[in-house]
C-alpha cells in the first residue's frame, strides 16, 4: 500500500494541478497517548519537493499544524502530456517517501 | 407521517412481551416509502432523491458546509484507505479462493432476507460467512477498520445503483416491522426516537452539527469521518453509527450485527429505495 | 555553477547523477533547502512574519484569493486553497493567528510552478487565516476568518 499518492489534473490555465496525499500522522508532540499517558512524540512531514521532468519546481514546507494525512496541491505552469512529475518528502524523524506519475 | 406514527404507536402497545398482531403487507410498505420520501421531498424542495446520497451536504441551507466538503472531495481523505481495501479484497485466502468466489448479493440489495434461517443477511455478516467457509479467521471488530474497508470496497462497485431491498417475503416484512418500530420508538434518557432527529428535525442544528435527513441514510455507508479519523478509527459501518446515536440519547447501544440493528438497517434501507449508492461517504 | 541539492535520503543516486550532468539541478532560484525553523517556532503572527520575510514591507492585496470554509466542519481538517494572480510569486505562507504556533505551512515557488497552494490545516479556535505572498520585492497579504466550533454529534 502506497503511503504517497499523486493525482494530476489539467487546469483551466493550461498547466496542471498536482495533488499529493501522504499517509502521515502529523503528530504535534502535544497529544497524550490514552493508554500510556505519555506524550506522543512530534512526527510530521517537513518538506515536500515537487519536480517536473527532473527539475525542482516547488517545495512545500509543512509543520504539525497541517492536518493528519496531509493533502498538498501545487500548480505546474509549463506542463504537457507525457511529462514526469514526482514528489519526495522528508519528515522530522528523518523518514522519507515519495511517488511519481506521468501526465496523461 | 401522522398515519405511520399512529400505526406504530398502536402496534408498539401490542409488542411488549407479545408477538406483533397484524402482519404488514407489501402494499403497506410501499405506502410507507411514498410517505417517507414524500415528506423529505416536500420539506427540502429542489433536493432530488439522488441528491440525498450526499446527506447533510445536499441541503441548500448548508451551502457553506457543502463547499467545505467539496474541497475535501477534490482528493478524498479516504483514498489511500480505499486502495488498501482493494488490495485486501483481492488477496487470496490460504486455500487460493478470493472474496469474489463467495455468494454475495449485490451491494444495493442488502439486507437480504434468508427464508431458510428466517434471518437477515447483511454484507458484514456475509463477509464473515465467506471467511469462515474458506477456513480463514473471521473479523472480530465488525464496526471499523478492515471490515468497514471491505464493505466499502465491495459496495463502491455498485455506486450509482438505486437501493433495492426485496421486501416481498412475509419473513422480510416481519423484520421490516420490527425495524420500523425501533425507528419510531423513543428511547434513552433523552427520550428521542430516530425519527425525532432524522425526520422531524432533519436539517436542524444540534450544537455545532447538523442532523442529517433519514432519507439518504444507508446509501453512503461505510462512512469515513474526520472526527473519527482524529481519534484514529476513521471508518464506521452503519451499525457503528447506530450504536453511537443510541449512546448519544443515553440509551444502551445494541450489539453490532444483532437483531435490533439488522431490523433497523432493513427499515432504513427500504425507506431509501431508489436512492443511488454513493460509497464511501466523507463526513465531518 | 552547480548547486548542491539538500534532499535528505531521497532521490536515487542515479537520477541525481543524470540530472546533474544535464544541468537540470540548477534552478534559477536556489532550492529553498531550509525549512522555516524560526517561523515555526514563533509564538505569535508578527514574529512568524518577521522570521519569514524580515523587514520586507507587507501590504494588503486583492490579488490573492482564499478558498476556505466560513465555518469549519471540523477544526482538525480545514481545507485552505490560496491562489494569487501576482506574477513572479516566490512563496506563499499560511498563518493562523490564534494557533499556538501561527505559522502552519508555506510553499516556495520556482520557475515551472504557479501561484497556487492548497492544503488542510488544524485550527484550535476561530481565527483569521492570513495568506502571505512574496512577489516583486514585497509581501502581499489577504485574510479569511474561519469559524471553528466543537462538533456536536458523532458517537
Question: Could you give the topology of this structure?
Answer:
The complex is a heterotrimer of chains A (104), B (284) and C (155).
Chain A: E1 4-10, E2 16-22, E3 45-52, E4 55-62, E5 71-76, E6 84-91, E7 96-102
Antiparallel strand pairs in A: 1-2, 2-5, 3-4, 3-6, 6-7
Chain B: H1 2-15, H2 26-43, H3 63-73, H4 79-90, E1 112-114, E2 119-121, H5 123-133, H6 145-156, H7 170-184, H8 194-200, E3 205-206, E4 209-210, E5 215-218, E6 223-225, H9 226-230, E7 235-236, H10 238-248, H11 259-271, E8 281-283
Parallel strand pairs in B: 6-8
Antiparallel strand pairs in B: 1-2, 3-4, 6-7
Helix pairs in contact in B: 4-6, 7-11
Chain C: H1 13-21, H2 37-41, H3 45-53, E1 58-60, E2 64-67, E3 71-72, E4 78-84, E5 89-96, E6 103-109, E7 113-121, E8 127-135, E9 138-148
Parallel strand pairs in C: 1-9, 3-9
Antiparallel strand pairs in C: 2-4, 4-7, 5-6, 5-8, 8-9
Give the tags.
heterotrimer, A: 104 residues, mainly beta, Immunoglobulin-like, 4-stranded antiparallel beta sheet, 3-stranded antiparallel beta sheet, 7 strands, 0% helix, C: 155 residues, 2 domains, 6-stranded mixed beta sheet, 9 strands, 39% strand, globular
Question: How would you characterize the overall build of this protein?
Answer:
The complex is a heterotrimer of chains A (104), B (284) and C (155). Helix content of chain A is 0%, strand content 49%. Chain A has a single domain (4-30, 40-102), classed as Sandwich (Immunoglobulin-like), CATH 2.60.40. Chain A is an all-beta fold and 104 residues long. In chain A, a hairpin with a 2-residue loop joins strand 3 (45-52) and strand 4. Chain B has a single domain (1-37, 49-284), classed as Cytochrome Bc1 Complex, Chain D, domain 2, CATH 1.10.760. Chain B has a three-stranded mixed beta sheet. A two-stranded antiparallel sheet of chain B has the order 1-2. A two-stranded antiparallel ribbon of chain B has the order 3-4. In chain B, a hairpin with a 4-residue loop joins strand 1 (112-114) and strand 2 (119-121). Chain C has two domains: 1-33, no CATH class; 42-148, SoxY domain (Immunoglobulin-like), CATH 2.60.40.2470. Chain C has helices spanning 13-21, 37-41, 45-53; strands at 58-60, 64-67, 71-72, 78-84, 89-96, 103-109, 113-121, 127-135, 138-148. In chain C, strands 1, 3, 5, 6, 8 and 9 form a six-stranded mixed beta sheet that branches. Chain C has a three-stranded antiparallel beta sheet with strand order 2-4-7, with no helix packed on it. In chain C, a hairpin with a 2-residue loop joins strand 8 (127-135) and strand 9 (138-148). Chain A binds chain C through residues 13, 15, 17, 19, 28, 46-47, 49-50, 52-68, 70-78, 88, 90, 94, 96, 98, and chain C through 5, 7-11, 15, 18-19, 22, 24-25, 27, 31-32, 35-36, 40, 76-79, 81, 96, 99, 101, 103-122. Strand 5 of chain A pairs antiparallel with strand 7 (113-121) of chain C, so a sheet runs across the interface.
Amino acid at each position: 500500500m502506497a503511503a504517497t499518492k499523486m493525482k494530476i489534473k489539467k487546469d483551466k490555465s493550461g498547466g496542471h494541478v498536482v495533488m499529493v496525499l501522504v499517509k502521515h500522522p502529523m503528530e504535534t508532540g502535544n497529544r497524550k497517548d490514552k493508554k500510556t499517558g505519555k506524550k506522543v512524540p512530534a512526527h510530521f512531514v517537513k518538506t515536500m519537493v515537487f519536480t517536473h521532468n527532473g527539475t525542482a519546481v516547488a517545495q512545500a514546507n509543512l509543520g504539525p499544524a497541517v492536518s493528519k494525512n496531509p493533502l498538498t496541491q501545487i500548480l505546474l505552469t509549463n506542463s504537457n502530456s507525457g511529462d514526469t512529475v514526482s514528489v519526495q518528502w522528508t519528515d522530522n524523524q528523518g523518514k522519507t517517501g515519495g511517488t511519481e506519475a506521468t501526465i496523461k | 407521517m401522522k398515519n405511520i406514527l399512529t400505526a406504530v404507536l398502536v402496534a408498539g402497545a401490542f409488542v411488549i412481551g407479545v408477538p406483533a398482531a397484524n402482519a404488514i403487507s407489501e402494499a403497506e410498505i410501499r405506502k410507507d416509502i411514498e410517505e417517507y420520501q414524500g415528506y423529505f421531498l416536500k420539506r427540502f424542495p429542489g433536493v432530488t432523491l439522488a441528491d440525498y446520497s450526499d446527506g447533510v451536504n445536499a441541503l441548500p441551507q448548508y451551502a457553506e458546509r457543502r463547499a467545505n466538503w467539496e474541497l475535501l472531495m477534490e482528493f478524498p481523505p479516504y483514498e489511500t484507505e480505499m486502495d488498501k481495501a482493494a488490495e485486501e479484497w483481492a488477496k487470496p485466502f490460504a486455500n487460493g479462493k478470493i472474496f469474489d468466489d463467495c455468494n454475495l448479493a449485490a451491494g444495493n440489495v442488502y439486507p437480504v432476507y434468508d427464508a431458510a434461517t428466517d434471518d437477515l443477511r447483511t454484507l458484514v455478516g456475509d463477509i464473515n460467512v465467506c471467511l469462515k467457509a474458506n477456513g480463514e479467521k473471521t473479523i472480530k471488530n465488525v464496526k471499523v477498520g478492515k471490515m468497514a474497508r471491505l464493505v466499502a470496497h465491495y459496495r463502491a462497485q455498485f455506486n450509482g445503483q438505486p437501493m433495492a431491498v426485496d421486501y416481498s417475503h412475509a419473513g422480510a416484512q416481519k423484520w421490516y416491522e420490527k425495524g420500523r418500530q425501533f425507528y419510531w420508538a423513543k428511547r434513552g434518557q433523552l427520550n428521542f426516537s430516530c425519527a425525532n432527529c432524522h425526520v422531524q428535525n432533519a436539517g436542524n442544528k444540534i450544537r455545532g452539527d447538523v442532523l442529517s435527513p433519514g432519507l439518504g441514510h444507508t446509501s453512503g455507508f461505510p462512512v469515513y469521518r474526520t472526527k473519527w479519523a482524529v481519534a484514529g478509527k476513521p471508518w464506521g459501518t452503519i451499525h457503528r453509527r447506530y450504536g453511537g446515536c443510541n449512546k448519544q440519547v443515553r440509551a444502551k447501544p445494541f450489539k453490532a450485527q444483532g437483531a435490533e440493528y439488522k431490523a433497523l438497517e432493513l427499515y432504513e434501507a427500504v425507506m431509501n429505495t431508489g436512492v443511488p449508492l454513493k460509497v464511501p461517504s466523507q463526513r465531518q | 555553477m552547480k548547486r548542491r541539492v539538500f534532499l535528505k535520503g531521497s532521490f536515487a543516486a542515479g537520477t541525481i547523477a543524470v540530472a546533474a550532468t544535464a544541468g537540470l539541478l540548477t534552478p534559477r532560484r536556489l532550492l529553498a533547502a531550509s525549512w522555516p525553523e524560526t517561523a515555526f517556532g514563533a509564538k505569535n503572527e508578527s514574529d512568524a512574519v518577521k522570521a519569514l520575510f524580515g523587514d520586507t514591507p507587507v501590504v494588503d492585496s486583492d490579488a490573492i484569493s482564499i478558498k476556505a470554509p466560513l465555518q469549519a466542519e471540523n477544526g482538525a481538517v480545514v481545507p485552505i486553497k490560496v491562489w494569487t494572480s501576482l506574477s513572479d510569486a516566490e512563496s506563499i505562507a499560511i498563518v493562523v493567528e490564534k494557533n499556538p504556533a501561527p505559522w502552519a505551512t508555506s510553499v516556495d515557488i520556482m520557475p515551472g510552478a504557479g501561484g497556487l497552494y492548497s492544503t488542510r490545516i488544524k485550527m484550535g479556535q476561530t481565527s483569521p487565516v492570513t495568506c502571505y505572498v512574496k512577489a516583486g520585492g514585497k509581501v502581499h497579504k489577504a485574510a479569511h476568518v474561519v469559524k471553528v466550533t466543537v462538533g456536536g454529534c458523532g458517537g
